[in-house]
From TrEMBL, chain A:
Occurrences of domain Tim10-like (ranges): 20-82
GO biological process: protein insertion into mitochondrial inner membrane; protein transport
Main location: mitochondrion
Any single Gene Ontology cellular-component annotation: mitochondrial inner membrane
Listed GO MF terms: metal ion binding
Identification of the protein by name: Mitochondrial import inner membrane translocase subunit
Parts of the chain that traverse the membrane: none
Automatic annotation (TrEMBL), chain B:
Compartments (UniProt record): Mitochondrion inner membrane
One biological process term in Gene Ontology: protein insertion into mitochondrial inner membrane
GO MF annotations, alphabetized: mitochondrion targeting sequence binding; protein transmembrane transporter activity
Coiled coil: none
Domain of life where this protein originates: Eukaryota
Organism, scientific name: Postia placenta MAD-698-R-SB12
A Pfam family reported for this protein in Swiss-Prot or TrEMBL: Tim17
Topology term for the membrane: Multi-pass membrane protein
GO cellular component: TIM22 mitochondrial import inner membrane insertion complex
Identification of the protein by name: Mitochondrial import inner membrane translocase subunit TIM22
InterPro entries the record matches: TIM22
Subunit comment: Component of the TIM22 complex.
Family the UniProt entry places it in: Belongs to the Tim17/Tim22/Tim23 family.
Length: 97, 169
């Protein structure tokens, strides 16, 4: 099971680690997406459904909600990064926030 | 839909019925369609549509009410012996056209003002509730009565706000 550069042209022996990383990244992206969708839906769309399309107010709200979510994510990540430079507990706490 | 966007760029799944070679055309068409939708939902488009609709309704009302108009041929400026029948008829129609244009302009202004202000308020608040049409009605009524003094501005604003609340209930 070691495809060290001889067969078919696929990547070399770090393959399982790469796959593992890719799977983790996929999980993280899916998790972020699901959180984003449910939190912006809870914030922006009222429970009284008068029609099926999004109103102007609701679509503006969703644009702002997504942009704020990513902004918050980025800022918290930066702070955690700077904190994680001082103490080694930065990395594992990030995914569970 | 309902799938997290975890595909590498350029390999997103196409909707059924479109083959791989038509992907570019599909993306182009989708881009133009998105622009169209965005344009239709923008504030400017809504103002224009409301203005044109208001103009049409005002012209229609004026057309209908001109048939009930009080008409006395002696009150017209011309001595009636001078004009032939077609000229008199064209005078009547021209008067009707002027009335339609005037009332259409008025209704169009009201509609465009109200729709534009409501769209701006809604974009600012990012909420869709009852406050938007009431506030927009207040501002629109105030603007329409701006030449008649401050009390008329307030009164007109309150009246138009109540009217727009009634139509939006």
């Amino acid at each position: 099971m070691s495809f060290l550069g001889r067969s078919g042209g696929s990547s070399t022996g770090v393959n399982p680690e790469r796959v593992e990383m890719a799977v983790q990244e996929l999980d993280m992206i899916t998790d972020v997406f699901n959180r984003l969708v449910s939190s912006c839906h809870a914030k922006c769309i009222s429970t009284r459904y008068a029609e099926g399309d999004l109103n102007k107010g609701e679509s503006v709200c969703i644009d702002r909600c997504v942009s704020k979510f990513f902004e918050v994510n980025k800022r918290v990540g930066e702070k955690l990064q700077s904190m994680g430079g001082n103490a080694p507990s930065g990395q594992s706490a990030f995914g569970s926030l | 839909p309902l799938v997290a966007p975890v595909f590498p760029a350029g390999k997103e799944p196409l909707p059924p019925g479109i083959s791989e070679e038509e992907r570019e055309n599909f993306l182009q068409a989708k881009k133009y369609q998105d622009y169209m939708t965005m344009g239709m939902e923008s504030c400017a488009a809504k103002t224009v549509i409301a203005g044109v609709g208001g103009f049409g309704i005002g012209a229609f009302f004026s057309l209908m009410s001109s048939s009930f108009a009080y008409e006395d041929p002696l009150l017209r400026g011309h001595p009636s012996g001078e004009l032939s029948r077609t000229q008199k008829a064209s005078e009547v129609f021209k008067e009707m056209g002027r009335g339609m244009w005037r009332s259409g302009k008025g209704f169009g202004k009201v509609g465009a003002l109200f729709a534009g202000i409501e769209c701006v308020i809604e974009s600012y608040r990012a909420k869709n509730d009852m406050v938007n049409p009431v506030a927009a009605g207040f501002v629109a009524g105030g603007v329409l009565a701006r030449n008649a003094g401050p009390k008329a501005v307030l009164g007109g604003g309150v009246a138009f706000a109540a009217f727009s609340a009634a139509i939006d209930l």
